[in-house]
């Protein structure tokens, strides 16, 4: 079209464009957006890339410089191109009340295509723009554009939003927003690369998730009710992506969440033992102070899946740390015919060893002769030793090959001895604590007395 040919007495079209772009700082906000709107239909030809780059730089620069207030209404007017801007029908005051000063530009940039949004976000990240504001814009952009977009356009929008959120600080993105994107993404056939990015971001914030977030229906063709594999990938991402950031507090939060989830999926008759076991053992042992919830979940699972083989049941028992069961759970286990007698014995023996260790440590403390507390303590030690001896007799009599009902009776008797020993040990600890405090207080007063006399 001879746009770059010299014309006598006037500039050619390319020269006029270059001169106009040099004056872009004098353009109104609306004029810049209109230029972008018209150019993005030609995206990505090289002839248009220079204009787009100049316009995008101008847009980002104006957003940065507008932290004090939003653009003046004098820069906006109705335009025949049909672009609808946020301030065309609202006053400056209503605009400020609808958006904070940091987000006034959200609705105006809805005219941008996903490709241009990607260009804007990457430029903002390079210029250290607030990641929390960027993430809010991306969520707003996705929700707003979905009203008029086609299925293919929606898929492209979701992928762009995921890709751009992934380059931000993940802590700046709300966990509930990520699950919202996940629900939308499951409808469209987004790329595996974007899906993996989204799962990694969710997994890194799993300690902020709720049970309802995890109850995602199973994909088509899977027998079980919920998407177990997805939750396992979340846990893997949490442990892997968090690295040193996974504190014990965060780990315990995820453990509590997983305990609730496991209890929720346990009644599913189509859930395979291997998947249930994978859920129960997905986190390290240090994540849980108590295994009561895991025990109850296994109990529910075994009741629903009564046809499991002994080998399959034995594998499920491996997920249970008997040393971290409460006294109430051990009582229930000793009377629970769903579990094998061997497992019940193991739970009670682990409690016995724990209490024996506690008793041994208490016996090693110094006794204070002549005090009434010391006499009470010695009496308690005698009771504890007597209880422990009887407990050891009960334990020594166990024969796992004997009749199951007789063994259950022995287990209940053993549990009574264990509870008795626990009470004695707690009483001894309380008495020893009082004695130690009294001695420390007396010693401090004795040292302070010479100072007062002097």
Count of beta strands: 0
Distance between the termini: 108 Å
- Mean pLDDT over the full residue set: 76
Which ranges are low-confidence, i.e. pLDDT below 50, for 5 or more consecutive residues?
Answer: 68-92, 365-378, 391-403
Main sheet: strands, sense, barrel: none
Residues in helices, as a percent range: 55-70%
Give an account of the 3D structure.
The chain is mainly α and 454 residues long. Helix content is 63%, strand content 0%. The protein contains 19 helices and no strands. The chain has helices at 13-22, 29-39, 46-64, 92-98, 114-126, 131-145, 151-166, 175-185, 192-204, 211-214, 228-242, 248-265, 273-280, 292-304, 310-317, 327-334, 341-363, 372-396, 404-453. Helix 12 (248-265) packs parallel to helix 14 and helix 17 (341-363) packs antiparallel against helix 18. The termini are far apart. Mean pLDDT is 76; it is low at 68-92, 365-378 and 391-403.
């Amino acid at each position: 079209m001879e746009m770059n040919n010299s014309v006598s007495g006037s500039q050619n079209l390319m020269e006029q464009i270059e001169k106009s772009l040099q004056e872009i700082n004098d353009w109104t906000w609306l004029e810049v957006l209109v230029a972008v709107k018209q150019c993005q239909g030609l995206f990505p030809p090289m002839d248009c890339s220079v204009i787009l780059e100049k316009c995008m730089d101008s847009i980002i620069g104006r957003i940065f410089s507008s932290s004090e207030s939003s653009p003046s209404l004098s820069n906006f007017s109705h335009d025949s191109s049909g672009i609808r801007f946020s301030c065309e029908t609202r006053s400056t005051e209503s605009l400020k009340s609808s958006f904070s000063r940091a987000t006034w530009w959200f609705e105006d940039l809805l005219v941008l295509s996903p490709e241009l949004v990607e260009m804007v976000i990457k430029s903002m990240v390079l210029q250290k723009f607030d990641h929390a504001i960027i993430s809010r814009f991306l969520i707003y952009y996705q929700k707003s554009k979905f009203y008029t977009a086609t299925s293919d356009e929606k898929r492209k929008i979701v992928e762009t939003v995921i890709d751009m959120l992934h380059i931000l600080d993940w802590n700046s993105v709300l966990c509930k927003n990520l699950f919202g994107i996940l629900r939308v993404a499951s409808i469209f056939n987004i790329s595996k690369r974007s899906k993996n990015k989204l799962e990694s971001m969710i997994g890194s914030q799993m300690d902020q998730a709720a049970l309802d977030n995890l109850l995602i229906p199973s994909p088509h063709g899977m027998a079980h009710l919920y998407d177990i594999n997805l939750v396992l990938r979340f846990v893997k991402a949490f442990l892997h992506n968090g690295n040193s950031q996974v504190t014990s507090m965060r780990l315990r939060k995820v453990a509590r969440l997983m305990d609730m989830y496991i209890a929720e999926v346990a009644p599913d008759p189509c859930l395979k033992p291997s998947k249930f076991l994978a859920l129960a053992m997905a986190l390290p042992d240090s994540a849980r102070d108590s295994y009561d919830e895991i025990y109850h979940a296994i109990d529910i699972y075994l009741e629903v899946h009564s046809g499991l083989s002994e080998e399959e049941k034995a594998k499920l028992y491996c997920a249970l740390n008997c040393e971290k069961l409460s006294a109430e759970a051990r009582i229930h286990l000793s009377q629970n015919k769903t579990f094998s007698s061997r497992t019940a014995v193991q739970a009670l023996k682990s409690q016995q060893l724990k209490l024996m260790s506690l008793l041994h440590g208490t016996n090693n403390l110094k006794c204070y002769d002549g005090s009434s507390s010391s006499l009470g303590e010695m009496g308690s030690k005698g009771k504890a030793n007597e209880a422990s001896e009887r407990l050891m007799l009960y334990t020594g009599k166990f024969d796992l090959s004997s009749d199951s009902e007789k063994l259950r009776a022995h287990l209940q008797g053993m549990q009574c001895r264990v509870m008795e020993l626990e009470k004695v040990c707690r009483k001894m600890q309380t008495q020893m604590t009082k004695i130690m405090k009294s001695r420390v207080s007396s010693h401090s007063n004795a040292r302070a007395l010479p100072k007062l006399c002097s």
